[in-house]
């Protein structure tokens, strides 16, 4: 399997398919690069080079105890892009991966980056604070950690069966295959990485990172996102970006890259080619 070793000795798995302008995909919590199947197959068939890695502690990357914070996530992404010498790349991040992309660009600069897209992404800040009154109470995220610690396998059934794909909405048609694939990806990763990752994605403030970014950024979000609520995420990120465009999808769930892949892929392609 193609892997790199980071400066702090962590083995990171990645996929690298095709040739042409690179599109680099950063996945959400607690999944893996497999969550981008619908996008990677689409874009490699449209003449792009597609790259995706498993975040440390997730998927096929090493299940280390430490480094499950956004600084390490960004540095690991930088290590992959440097190893593959990716230039003029488009970075696409879903959910936690959106935070990873934002922090990577702000922390490591734009010399290798052409554009970025944030899908159902966690920035600017998920947790409720005095400065972010519209955020979710910290007790929500404490509850996620408690469920993970008590019965991770059951927790990883409940999330995709319910809010992640909007399968708990009236008239929804749940796909057992999609639910099982979410569970499979989650259970491949390490409990410690996933437990710590809840703090990383919920309590990291990306406000200053967003302000530093000058490349074009497409902010894509469904207004029925039950994981990263729309009002406190996408519109705020788009305003903080120097060159941000907000695209709102009526009724789309958090997991829209999977359930609404046809629409998302078409819009991403138009943005990349635009």
Topology:
Layout: E1 3-5, E2 11-17, E3 22-26, H1 37-45, E4 49-53, H2 70-83, E5 89-94, H3 96-108, E6 113-119, H4 138-161, H5 176-188, H6 191-203, H7 207-212, E7 217-222, H8 234-240, E8 244-249, H9 256-259, H10 261-273
Parallel strand pairs: 3-4, 3-5, 5-6, 6-7, 7-8
Antiparallel strand pairs: 1-2, 2-4
Describe this structure in words.
Keywords: Hydrolase. It is a single chain. This protein is an alpha/beta fold. The protein is 42% helix and 16% strand. It is built from ten helices and eight strands. α2 (70-83) crosses α3 (96-108), α4 (138-161) packs across α5 (176-188) and α4 (138-161) crosses α6. The longest helix is centred in the middle third of the chain and has 24 residues, at 138-161. The chain is globular and about 40 Å long.
In short:
With 274 residues, this protein is an alpha/beta fold. It is 42% helix and 16% strand.
Structural class: alpha/beta
Count of runs of 4 or more consecutive helical residues: 10
The overall strand count is: 8
Q: What's the shape? A: globular
Tell me the β content: 15-25%
Radius of gyration: 17 Å
Distance between the termini: 34 Å
Biggest sheet strand order reads 1-2-4-3-5-6-7-8
* H/E series: EEEHEHEHEHHHHEHEHH
The major sheet is characterized as:
8 strands, mixed
Could you report the average pLDDT, rounded to the nearest whole number?
Answer: 98
Helix content class? 40-55%
Regions with little confidence, pLDDT below 50 for 5+ residues: none
**Oligomer designation:** single chain
Protein name: Alpha/beta hydrolase
InterPro entries: AB_hydrolase, AB_hydrolase_1, AB_hydrolase_fold
Keywords: Hydrolase
GO molecular function: hydrolase activity
């Amino acid at each position: 399997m193609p892997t790199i070793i980071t400066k702090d000795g962590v083995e990171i798995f990645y996929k690298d398919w095709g040739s042409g302008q690179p599109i680099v995909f950063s996945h959400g919590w607690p999944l893996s690069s497999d969550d981008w199947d619908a996008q990677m197959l689409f874009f490699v068939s449209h003449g792009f080079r597609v790259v995706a890695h498993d975040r440390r502690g997730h998927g096929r990357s090493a299940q280390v105890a430490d480094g499950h914070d956004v600084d390490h996530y960004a540095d690991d992404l930088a290590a992959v892009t440097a190893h593959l010498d990716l230039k003029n790349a488009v970075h696409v991040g879903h959910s936690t991966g959106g935070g990873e992309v934002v922090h990577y660009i702000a922390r490591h600069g734009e010399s290798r980056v052409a554009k970025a897209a944030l899908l159902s992404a966690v920035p600017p800040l998920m947790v409720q604070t005095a400065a972010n009154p519209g955020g979710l109470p910290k007790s929500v995220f404490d509850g996620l950690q408690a469920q993970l610690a008590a019965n991770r396998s059951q927790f990883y059934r409940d999330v995709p069966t319910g809010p992640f794909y909007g399968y708990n909405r009236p008239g929804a048609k749940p796909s057992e295959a999609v639910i099982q694939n979410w569970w499979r990806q989650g259970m491949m990763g390490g409990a410690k990485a996933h437990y710590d990752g809840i703090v990383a994605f919920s309590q990291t403030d990306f406000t200053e990172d967003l302000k530093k970014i000058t490349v074009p950024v497409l902010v894509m979000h469904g207004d029925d996102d039950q994981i990263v609520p729309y009002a406190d995420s996408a519109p705020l990120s788009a305003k903080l970006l120097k060159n941000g465009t907000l695209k709102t999808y009526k009724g789309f769930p958090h997991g829209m890259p999977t359930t609404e892949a046809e629409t998302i892929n078409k819009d991403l392609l138009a943005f990349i080619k635009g």
